[in-house]
Amino acid sequence: MIRIDQAAYSSPWYSFHPAVKLGLVAASLLLVLALDTEIISISVLLSMSLLVILAARVSWRFYLNLMLIPLCFLVAGCAAVAVTNSIQPHGLWPAVYAGGLWWGISDGSWHQAQALMLRCLACVSAMYLLALTTPVVQLVYVMRMLKIPDVITDLTGLIYINIFTFLQTAQDIYIAQQSRCGYRGFKGQFSSLSALVSNLFLKNLHRTSACYDGLLARGFNGSLEVLEEPYIFKPVHLAAVSIFISSLLMIYFYGGRYAA
Amino acid sequence: MQPDLLTVRDLYYRYQDGTNALNGLNISVPVNCRAAILGANGAGKSTLFLHFNGLLRPLAGSVYYRGREVQYNKKALMNLRQRVGIVFQNPDHQLFSASVWQDISFGLMNQGCGKAEARMRVEAVGEQLGISELFFRPTHFLSVGQKKMVSLAGVLAMEPELIICDEPTAGLDPENAQLFMHVLNQLQQQGKTIVISTHDVNLAYQWADLVWLLHRGQVLAEGSPLEVFDQDELLKQAHLETPWLLEIWRVMEAQGLVSADMPPRSKAQLRQALHE
Ligand SMILES: Nc1ncnc2c1ncn2[C@@H]1O[C@H](COP(=O)(O)OP(=O)(O)O)[C@@H](O)[C@H]1O
Ligand SMILES: [Mg+2]
After folding, report:
1. Are A221 and B112 in contact (CB under 8 A)?
2. ipTM score
């Protein structure tokens, strides 16, 4: 998570207008989900991956590692979809007889699993493009643009920054415990972990009140008003996104025919 | 005569758990001075600072800003907090935004500053403190020294008259500590009043114009560094030591190596005295 965040901050796309980036990803997601054809899924998966690696300059190794995380879950989930049953063994492979039914993979179920897999991968790659080029601060900015209530946008920002100190605190406590022989034995595992969790809570409570003082000292009056960073809005970007989305639609209407 | 910038009179404060953090404290900070509140851990420095801009309300006693007693209604507090800026000890408690740019602008927007004006002031402060290249870096990946500078920038952008720094050098390496104190000196030369808290006797001795020695929520001694650090008994009572410059000077004086003039306030002055 920290590496994704760092990638977003050092991305060449960092200063692009966040609404355009979000628009690109949201439109792609929408098309993949609404049109639900393999060719669209494949197009989005390929183009997003190319954008991540070539345009946003994320190393392909790192990107591959990132893609592997959801892949594990997807394989398990799609395997469940691929396996089907029937009252006769015809068209099933490998037809296994169990519990009064024949089990195996059929042509239909195989295609279904394949389509599902591609659809999910396409969505994941689009989300990664967003995560790897757009820090949370920028997403909050778009949320504000969309007139989402202050409470939600403020909380999103605060939770995000707190994740980092939270992780750091947890790590500090963990190391301090280990250096005094915590986590020894079965019982020690539990008692040390529970001490960690409860202390994490207490420390964070203390921290929160200190942070609140910090906000008040600078005149906090209920909503976190800040000056937005100056983002570069280039019509070219908007045009590029429109062209991309239109090409996807073209592929759907013309290319889809041959694929079917 | 112009009244002192900030005065606290007979200040008492007790935390909810019954700790008496301040016990009848009197301090008066003149305009445009460099003041150090000196005390060991738990002496009450941070608690005192939270009274300076009305974050805590005294149990008894009162706080005066430019001779006027501080009122605790919303409007008066907003006004006070614009004039009295606090840089907290732990920058992680102060930086709430992941964006340096946004964090610096926060106080300005609360003041109701317009966007164009706010942008100008953020840029000016960045320039002044030499942190312009950090604007679009995330606050959570900055070094402690950088975080500290950004915290100061967020306070400075509001253009306060009085800048309070709680343990400004805590957690900084010598170079960053020196840089930070240098920046504070510059601000003082530009007319700001600076108050720091510290347990570092050498820092207080070398940097401050005025020192208050704090112990258990009370002032044990006050005055110029030379006056305060001359009182060995009180220093010992406050669990603090004599600054090394003064210590060396006394030894040399006792051996007749130097003529008893003014003790040096810095390494450079000591070196010069040795040459003579
Ligand atoms: N939130 C709190 N609740 C209870 N006691 C506190 C709290 N903060 C500080 N204290 C106590 O008040 C005294 C003064 O603390 P503080 O002002 O933080 O000292 P300093 O900043 O000089 O180290 C200490 O005894 C400390 O334990
Ligand atoms: Mg303190």
Report:
1. no
2. 0.83
